[in-house]
Specification:
The protein is an alpha/beta fold. The protein folds into two domains: 165 residues, D-Maltodextrin-Binding Protein, domain 2 (3-Layer(aba) Sandwich); 123 residues, Bacterial extracellular solute-binding protein, family 7 (D-Maltodextrin-Binding Protein, domain 2), CATH 3.40.190.170. 46% of the residues lie in helices and 17% in strands. Strand 6, helix 6 and strand 7 form a beta-alpha-beta unit. This is Tripartite ATP-independent transporter solute receptor, DctP family. Keywords: Receptor, Signal. One of its GO terms (biological process) is transmembrane transport. GO terms for molecular function: carbohydrate binding.
Amino acid sequence: MKINATAFLLVFSFLLFASCEEARQTRVLKLAHGLDVTHPVHKGMVYMKQQLEQVSGGKMTLEIYPSQQLGSEREALELLQIGSLDMTKVSAGVMESFSPKFRVLGLPYLFRDRAHQFAVQDGPIGEEILRDGENYWLRGLCFYDAGSRSFYMKDRPINTPADLQGLKIRVMESPTAQAMVSIMGGSPTPMSYGELYTSLQQGVVDGAENNPPSFYSSRHYEVCKYYSLDEHTALPDVLLIGTKVWNKLSPEEQEWLQAAVDASVPEERRLWAESEEESLREVQKAGVEIIYPDKKPFEEKVQPLYDALKNDPTLYDLVQRIRAVETDNPGSPQL
């Protein structure tokens, strides 16, 4: 019996050692974001995790923390900068405070249509913007489709910019978004996404602006019954990794991660398109009035934002290069 017990202990110790060895050989990256698990962008990142495990043969994986479990978007970016968090997904608008070139992505009515938007983000200009964050210890890996942002209100529809006069509109911590709402006559009110539902209920703000899947998954439609699809900005989400973490990865690990990221982009766009249709359908069932205002007055109202860029040669040049990008699909859906 003593021999059997000894043999058992040896086998158990060996298996425990092997398990620890295997754990040490699997690199785990922690990814935090603020979206609900039903959101198409979250699902796109789950797909990325599956692709990473596959392409690396199980040597790399992700632990995903949704719903602001590890803090707001800004807090997640700060954790990346100091190396306390590996990866995050934020709206490109939040990146304005960390990386100047991201400002152009928040400009209203920048893209002609979806084909133009994707051609810019998937091409050299998109790569240039993603890399601009490296000066601030933030390396962009890809852009995820986040549709177009539109106004939703508690008590009245928005048919023209004049309808925003004096209303408190929740915006992201984005100087461009704040300037846009101000120019249209509203009162921009920056706040965390997680605080918005209660703020709408309590009347702290009169409305907000976001894309259909976020409007639906956040359940803001329970409070706001008017959704005006002016589609003022086609602001993407951006997936980031801290440069301190990226530089610790081997060249092979960097290649695995980027391959998984690249594979997730078309899948996320597919999920997004499905979710956008479903979201508009469901909020209408819940009693939300969908308004399709004439976009021309909104475009004309925000022209001063573009005029002001002439004082910033770098960003002005970037806008001109974006507008010059041609696409092979001029019949793509309008934004």
